[in-house]
């Protein structure tokens, strides 16, 4: 039972190992990593519609266009910052973080006013955190001996050589350092720290930076430390593991990598986005708090509730914005990076990268299982399995990130999976191609190539049944076959028929037709099945005209052979009938022996066109349906001659019929004149102008391309047929309600 699977396994044991191994190696390249970041951004944007709101304690305050236009221009006097900070403390806020660099002294009075406001706010319980930035050279503020509240982190364990580092730092001005803490801005945009991806989006911001020989918290970590009132000496940093932050209730564990960085779990945006942090304007907040606590105004709208809040203050105005691209937007306020980190810490909602060994190990196990179970199934089954596998893993990645912030790497595993499927499916395709060639060799001599191809593509054994398809049915028969078959031996007759039928069949198949069957000298074929084509009627008409032309060359060949063939063979003609319409096509017959064929009333009508052509002196005749379909898809490349309307035996409704005169480029001017005179005669015939019609048909007969006594094997033509009809009408006129319809008495 399992021997084919074991054979396949022995042949392809290497495939999962090589495909996933190469994918894992490529995953270390920057190109693939950048693409992986992009897929994570897509997942981040997707989950925005399903995630819970951010921590309600967090609020964003922006110095925006409204503040610039209606309050004060940037840079604002620092006493304004001091007033805002003092008013925020009156509202009961817990921490206010300034994501604004105040690293150089400006106006001593203004600087002192801000520091006084911070000191007053601190006395009310508000902690203020300012921003510091790394520097390659000493700064005046950093060299000051003024007292400093912020202390370095002392419990740092492990190799810190990968930390974001600098020799110096630009710190807040001395009067501000004395009354507030500071943290280092944790979104470096330059350098080789690999904190941001090539598109400028922060990915793994540092929580601890190294300045000289000391370690300091980032702005985000400093904000959380101040919220929980955790001194620097109590913070424990284990490189490659976590930062342990002891609070009164519990010890927070903040995961970091060997560079002291956190994997950014970017969930929330600002205004004009889904799932946002509450965002306040600098001016609106300042005036609202002023109206409540300094000069109470009963008519003023109450300011937002800030009790216990953490406020992040930043700059975001037109032409002067502290901005960065983010996983959810191309242009977003940079303070949102800090707020998302703080939100992760407060809610312990950390992004976690699923271990590589787990992903690749599982991929190998499933790869080998799939190889053993499915490798010998059909290509369609393998393709379905490949799509299902890719979709399932993609869904797992999306679910993991959306529901649990688990980062399953997507690109490289899918690349490895795709490569494995390429190997397995490619092998199966080659096997099936080999089987197709074997099947063609077995059945090609008996069935038409189109039927063989359909049988191969289906992948199923032949069975009874069919389906409805619009086709053009083709019937042909040799004129006077019974007469000349008596004049040649059986062996010579077979030789003659083989040569004739070979020519007919080759032309039919070259034009895309399918041979249905041979019935003695008759050829039955269809155009438009089993492979549907829009221009099947045009193809059938071209095939009919090509067969007539090829038969002309055969007559010349047989004539050149002299008395080797009787006169009836040298003058052999074939009649062809076509009709376009719906038919049931498929395998029909008994349950043990059947044929790919067609059947319907429209197919029978095509047979009537072939047998009825004799009555009209034509050798290629079709219905109006075929003419219309041919002209729809073939234009005017084929010339038709209307022959009137007939009611064939077994039918009650009249059918317009046409002779296939020839290809447009092959029809001579003489023949065109004949058709014009014939059309005039037909119009007079339908108008009951018997004398006028007779005169026209006598003139057109002299111009006919095929005339008795002139063209070999020709006994009549359409003009002669209508001369007989009109002559009969002169003697026995049809009734007044006649309508120009001719009722055929024979099949």
Task: Characterise the protein shown here.
The protein has 747 residues and is an alpha/beta fold. The protein has three domains: 3-34 and 354-439, no CATH class; 48-352, no CATH class; 449-667, Alpha-Beta Plaits (2-Layer Sandwich).
Task: Please write out the topology.
Layout: H1 3-12, H2 14-26, H3 30-47, E1 58-63, H4 65-70, H5 78-90, E2 95-101, H6 108-123, E3 127-135, H7 140-143, E4 155-157, E5 165-166, E6 168-170, H8 174-177, E7 181-184, E8 208-211, E9 214-217, H9 219-227, E10 236-238, E11 242-246, E12 251-255, E13 279-281, H10 282-293, E14 310-317, E15 320-321, E16 323-326, E17 329-333, H11 335-347, E18 352-353, H12 356-374, H13 379-404, E19 406-407, H14 411-443, H15 449-458, E20 465-478, H16 481-485, H17 490-510, E21 513-519, E22 522-527, H18 536-560, H19 567-570, E23 574-589, E24 594-599, H20 601-612, E25 620-623, H21 624-634, E26 638-647, E27 655-663, H22 669-686, H23 690-703, H24 718-731, E28 741-743
Parallel strand pairs: 1-13, 1-14, 2-3, 2-14, 3-7, 4-10, 5-8, 18-19, 23-25, 26-28
Antiparallel strand pairs: 3-6, 8-9, 10-11, 11-12, 14-15, 16-17, 20-22, 20-23, 21-22, 23-24, 25-27, 26-27
């Amino acid at each position: 039972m399992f021997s084919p699977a074991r054979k396949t396994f022995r042949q392809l044991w290497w495939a999962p190992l090589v495909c996933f191994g190469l994918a894992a190696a490529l995953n270390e390249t920057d190109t693939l990593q950048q693409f992986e970041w992009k897929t994570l951004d897509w997942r981040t944007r997707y989950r925005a519609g399903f995630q819970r709101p951010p921590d309600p304690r967090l609020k964003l305050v922006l110095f925006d266009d409204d503040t610039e236009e209606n309050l004060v221009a940037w840079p604002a006097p620092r006493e304004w910052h001091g007033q805002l900070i003092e008013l925020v403390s009156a509202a009961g806020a817990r921490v206010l973080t300034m994501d604004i660099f105040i690293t150089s002294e400006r106006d001593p009075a203004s600087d002192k006013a801000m520091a006084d406001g911070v000191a007053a706010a601190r006395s009310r319980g508000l902690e203020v955190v300012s921003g510091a930035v790394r520097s390659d050279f000493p700064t005046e503020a950093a060299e000051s001996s003024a007292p400093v509240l912020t202390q370095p982190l002392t419990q740092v364990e492990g190799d810190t050589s990968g930390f974001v580092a600098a020799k110096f730092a630009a710190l807040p001005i001395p009067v501000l350092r004395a009354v507030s803490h500071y943290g280092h801005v944790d979104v470096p945009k330059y350098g080789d720290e690999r904190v941001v991806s090539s598109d400028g989006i922060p990915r793994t911001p540092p929580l601890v930076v190294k300045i000289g020989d000391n370690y300091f918290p980032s702005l985000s970590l400093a904000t959380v430390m101040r919220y929980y009132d955790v001194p620097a000496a109590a913070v424990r940093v284990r490189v490659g593991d976590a930062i342990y932050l002891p609070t009164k209730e519990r010890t927070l564990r903040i995961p970091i990598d060997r560079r002291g960085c956190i994997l950014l779990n970017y969930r929330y945006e600002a205004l004009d986005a889904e799932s946002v942090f509450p965002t306040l304007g600098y001016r609106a907040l300042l005036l609202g708090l002023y109206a409540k606590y300094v000069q109470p105004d009963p008519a003023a709208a109450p300011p937002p509730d800030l009790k216990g809040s953490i406020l992040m203050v930043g700059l975001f105005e037109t032409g002067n914005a502290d901005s960065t691209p983010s996983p959810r937007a191309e242009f977003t306020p940079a303070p949102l990076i800090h707020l998302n980190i703080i939100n992760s810490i407060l809610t312990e909602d950390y992004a976690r990268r699923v271990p590589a060994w787990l992903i690749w190990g599982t991929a190998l196990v499933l790869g080998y299982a799939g190889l053993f179970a499915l490798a010998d199934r059909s290509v369609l089954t393998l393709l379905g399995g490949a799509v299902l596998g890719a979709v399932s893993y993609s869904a797992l990645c999306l679910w993991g990130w959306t529901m649990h912030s688990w980062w399953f790497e997507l690109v490289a595993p899918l690349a490895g999976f795709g490569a494995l499927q390429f190997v397995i499916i490619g092998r199966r395709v080659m096997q099936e191609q080999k089987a197709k060639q074997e099947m063609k060799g077995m059945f090609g001599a008996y069935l038409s190539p189109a039927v063989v191809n359909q049988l191969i593509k289906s992948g199923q054994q032949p069975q009874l049944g069919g389906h409805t398809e619009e086709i053009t049915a083709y019937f042909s028969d040799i004129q006077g076959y019974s007469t000349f078959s008596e004049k040649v031996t059986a062996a010579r007759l077979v030789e003659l028929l083989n040569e004739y039928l070979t020519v007919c069949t080759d032309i039919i198949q070259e034009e895309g037709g399918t041979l249905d069957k041979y019935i003695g000298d008759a050829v039955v074929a269809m155009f438009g099945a089993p492979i549907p084509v829009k221009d099947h009627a045009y193809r059938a008409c071209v095939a009919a005209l090509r067969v007539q032309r090829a038969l002309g060359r055969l007559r010349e060949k047989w004539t050149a052979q002299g008395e080797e063939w009787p006169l009836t063979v040298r003058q052999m003609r074939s009649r062809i009938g076509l009709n376009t319409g719906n038919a049931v096509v498929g395998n029909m017959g008994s349950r043990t022996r059947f044929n790919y064929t067609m059947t319907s009333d429209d197919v029978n009508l095509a047979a009537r066109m072939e047998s009825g052509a004799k009555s009209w002196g034509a050798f290629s005749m079709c219905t109006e349906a075929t003419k219309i379909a041919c002209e729809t898809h073939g234009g005017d490349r084929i010339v038709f001659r209307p022959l009137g309307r007939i009611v064939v035996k077994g039918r009650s409704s009249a059918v317009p019929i046409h002779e296939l005169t020839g290809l447009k480029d092959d029809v001579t001017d003489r023949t065109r004149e004949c058709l014009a005179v014939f059309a005039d005669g037909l119009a007079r015939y339908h108008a009951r102008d018997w004398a006028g019609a007779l005169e026209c048909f006598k003139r057109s007969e002299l111009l006919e391309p095929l005339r008795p006594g002139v063209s070999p094997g020709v006994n009549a033509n359409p003009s002669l047929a209508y001369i007989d009809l009109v002559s009969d009408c002169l003697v026995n006129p049809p009734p007044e309600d006649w309508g120009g319809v001719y009722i055929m008495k024979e099949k």
